[in-house]
Structure formats: C-alpha cells, structure tokens
Hints:
The protein has helices spanning 7-13, 59-69, 78-82, 129-136, 153-168, 198-209, 224-232, and strands spanning 21-27, 33-36, 39-44, 47-49, 85-87, 93-103, 106-119, 143-146, 172-176, 190-194, 213-216, 236-241, 256-260, 266-271. The protein is an alpha/beta fold. The chain folds into 2 domains: 7-119, 2-Layer Sandwich (Beta-Lactamase), CATH 3.30.450; 129-271, P-loop containing nucleotide triphosphate hydrolases (Rossmann fold), CATH 3.40.50.300. The chain is globular.
Amino acid sequence: MLNFLPKRLKNCVEHINCNLLYELRVRAGKPLSANLGGQYVYLGEQGVSDSSSALLPTEKELEETVYAASDYSVYAVENQLKEGFVTGKEGERIGIAGAYVYENGRVLSIRAVTSLCIRVPHEIRGCAEEIYTKCLSDELLSLLILAPPGDGKTTVLRDLCRLVSERTQKNILVSDERGELSAGELGKTSDVIRFADKLTAFTAGIRAMRPDIIVTDELLPDDYKAVKRAIAGGISVFASAHLKKFSDVPEKIFSRYVLLDGLGKVGRVLDEGGKDVD
C-alpha cells in the first residue's frame, strides 16, 4: 500500500499505524497531514507531530507521486486524470488539484499539481452485517447508502457485496468507476467493470454478464437514469451517494436508504417513503 510515495513521504507514513490511515493530504509547501482513525494530524519524519515540525512536501514530490501512481505512464491513465484523480495499484485513489488544461472546451489534462488527497481503502469484514440483516435477509432489495465524504460508504458497500455473494451466490456486477470499490474482497460470484462511467458499465454489463445485482459507488444525479433502468429490469442495485439526508436524494427509486452515522456506522435505515425500518 502507498508504494508510489516518494522516499520522504513514505518514511513519515512508516512511523504511523496504517490500519488507522484513511486519508493523506499532500500539499506543496504546506504541512503533511493525515486522517488517522477519523482525526486529522500532522506528520513529520518520526510520524505524528505538530505543524511546526511536520514535513513540507515539494511540488516535485507531488509530481513524482502522480507519476509513480500512474505506473510511470500518464498516458495509461489519461481518462482518469481528466476526471481529477488517478488510482494506485492497491485501490488508493489520488485526487489531484492543480491547473486544468482545456482543449476545445474539454479537460485535456492537469498541470502544475499543487495538492493531493490520497484515500486509502480499508476492508472491515462484517461492517455491513446490520444492513444485510435489516434490508436483505428476507429478499434482495435495492438500497442506497448515504453519508458525507470520508464516512466509510465504500468500505460498507464493499463488505455488503461480499456478504451477499457468500450467502446468496447471486451474480454480482461491480461498476467501479474510480478503481476504488474493488480494492478488497467482493465475493466469489462478483464481476468487475473498472474505469467506465456508470451508463456504459450498466448497459454493457447487463448485456454481457447477466447480473442479478449491480453494486456501484458515488451516484450523481445523471446516474439515476441508468440505475432506474436496471431496477425496472428486475436487477437489484446497491449504491452510495455523497448525501446527508433522505430529502436530498434526487429520485426516490430505491427500496431502502441507509444513513451512516460516522465512519462506517449505521445510523438509520429508511424505507422508500422515508420511514424508519426496525
């Protein structure tokens, strides 16, 4: 994990408990920081430190990080870069801030990288057990997991995929647009389409793989058309979205809505009408 980091940054990470590392914030000329177990801390040469002794990454180190995470070929991840991220070999998602370069009104690439947000995937077996029990133990329903960024939606969704695969042996199609969702155990009956937009993945996947269930992450309003079509065709869909409230969901097409309360913790489970499910 994080093998693409330059030597100085990697040395800082080696002095902390990586089982608690959820996110690494790398900003050129600014203190290196990390989300450890839900709390942001600064990192120096000996691990956790105060801001005055934290490591100050250079622009060159940020560029080296992106280059290494791209497996030393930015052309191979050109489409990802246009979306503002690149995915490491072990599912680490590196969000990139810098100067966007446009050509004919479309994003061509990113230059002069100034900040990186490196999200580290974690596998927590059993974290979706409560969701399975409340929502899926009797029948397979479509459900949407709601929470702000960083609250463990992907981790929960990944474990839910594994549980359903193990207990039902249903054919599952994982639409992994950013290469992050499939960084872990998904079960023996799961098939993965990576780095395709949801409309493409849903359309091609349904035709080619005949799934009983589709699992996908980070729904945007434009994605609901593809989800609605799948559900209408008798396919259950498990998805997540960066939303905090049931009322924020643009289209109420799911049978269950799971609101997380902190990192991977289930707060409420609601039915299609927004009522609590016991």
